[in-house]
Design a protein that fits this description.
Distance between the termini: 44 Å
Structural class: mainly beta
Strand order of the largest sheet: 2-3-4-6-10
Number of helices: 0
Mean pLDDT: 78
């Protein structure tokens, strides 16, 4: 049978996008694109990094977006992350079909690490498996140092939005 979940002492938050087929948090047979982290060095890990690999931006279909949402433990109810008041940072793919934050191998399209020796893991790697930077679908990985210091909207089409970019060398490397 089905057991009813006792929610009398629980708080739930549902992150969503009101755009059809954005694939918030991953999807299909691909790996999840959600990270829980402690970006602000609080006592608990209460910051969320979530990808929406098929989201559109400025006419770029399926460019993808990655959102940073701080202090999720203070949120309740339904949170539409397409509203800029509901996220701290949004990074968007540089071209149509980049699908940033996605993975074609079933692994995660997001990795958080400490690459510079500063306090905490706050350096973000974002996969863009279908990016067309060097050749069609050659793929790319963006490195964003100190993602915890960013706020606002960043289009990965310009190098000022990321610290380093590694591209696939030939068609379908992604």
């Amino acid at each position: 049978g089905i057991t009813k979940l006792d929610v009398s002492n629980a708080t739930f938050v549902r992150f969503y996008t009101n755009i059809a087929a954005d694939s918030l948090g991953g999807g299909n047979s691909n790996g999840p694109s959600v990270l829980i982290a402690n970006l602000d060095n609080n006592i608990v890990s209460n910051d969320l990094i979530i990808a929406s690999p098929l989201s559109d931006f400025n006419g770029k279909a399926n460019a993808g977006s990655v959102y940073v949402i701080n202090d999720i433990n203070t949120l309740t109810g339904f949170v539409d992350i397409n509203k800029s008041t509901n996220y701290l940072t949004r990074l968007v793919g540089s071209r149509a079909q980049d699908q940033i934050g996605n993975s074609l191998s079933g692994e995660t399209g997001l990795v958080l690490a400490n690459t510079d020796g500063n306090t905490g893991a706050n350096d973000l790697f974002i996969a863009a498996p279908l990016a067309d930077n060097a050749a069609a679908n050659s793929g790319a990985v963006y490195f964003i140092r100190d993602v915890n210091t960013l706020s606002g909207l960043f289009d990965l089409n310009g190098s000022v939005s990321f610290s380093a970019l590694r591209q696939g060398g030939s068609t379908n490397d992604g």
